[in-house]
Amino acid sequence: MPRPSCFECFLHWSCDQSTNKVDIAFRLTGTSNSRWIAWGINPTGQGMVGAQALVAYQTSSSAMHAYTSPVPAYHTWLPEGSLSFGVSNLSATFENGNEMMIFATLALDGAMKTVNHVWQEGPLIEGNPRKHDISPGSPNLRSLGTLNLLDNHHV
């Protein structure tokens, strides 16, 4: 995964081919408790539009909130909603004052062996995720790639 200049992110995964389940751990460093993070798979194309995302942020009570959000357009504020595949064991952590992690098990279609994936971070405004930076050269615009889920390791 390319490492944008304002944050670093890492993805660890393990795919069980017999069940088509993928355990993921997405970690982003260089963030704060006034930011949200997201990682997702786009089963219909590349980029954010169409992505099926896992989102997390720290609430005002310091608890972590992790949820799923389909991304139908660029101007979404990541509302909670069901994804096109099953998600279980969804949780998140915020550690060391600058590192968030999302954990989940994904139940994917057997044909989903190589997927387009995206990762993002952005501001919380009044406790809610808001649009991330999309100015030219923004790391958010470069936060996408292709992932072979059968290659169990991390990037």
Please, could you describe this protein's structure?
With 155 residues, the protein is mainly β. It has a single domain (8-148), classed as Sandwich (Immunoglobulin-like). It has no helices and 10 strands. The protein has strands at residues 8-16, 21-29, 35-42, 52-58, 64-70, 86-95, 99-107, 114-125, 128-129, 144-148. Strands 3, 4, 5, 8, 9 and 10 form a 6-stranded antiparallel beta sheet that branches. The model is unreliable at 1-6 (pLDDT under 50).
At a glance:
By secondary structure, this protein is mostly beta strands. The chain has strands at 8-16, 21-29, 35-42, 52-58, 64-70, 86-95, 99-107, 114-125, 128-129, 144-148.
Helical content (DSSP H or I, runs of 4+) = under 10%
End-to-end C-alpha gap: 6 Å
Count of separate structural domains = 1
Q: What is the residue-averaged pLDDT?
A: 86
From the spread of the alpha carbons, the general shape counts as globular
- Give the uncertain stretches in residue-range form: 1-6
The Cα radius of gyration reads 14 Å
Under the CATH scheme, which architecture would be assigned?
Sandwich
How many β-strands, per DSSP?
10
Number of helices: 0
What is the third-level CATH name, the topology?
A: Immunoglobulin-like
CATH-assigned homologous superfamily? Cellobiose dehydrogenase, cytochrome domain
SSE class: mainly beta
Sheet with most strands? 6 strands, antiparallel
CATH class: Mainly Beta
Any descriptors?
155 residues; mainly beta; Immunoglobulin-like; six-stranded antiparallel beta sheet; 50% strand
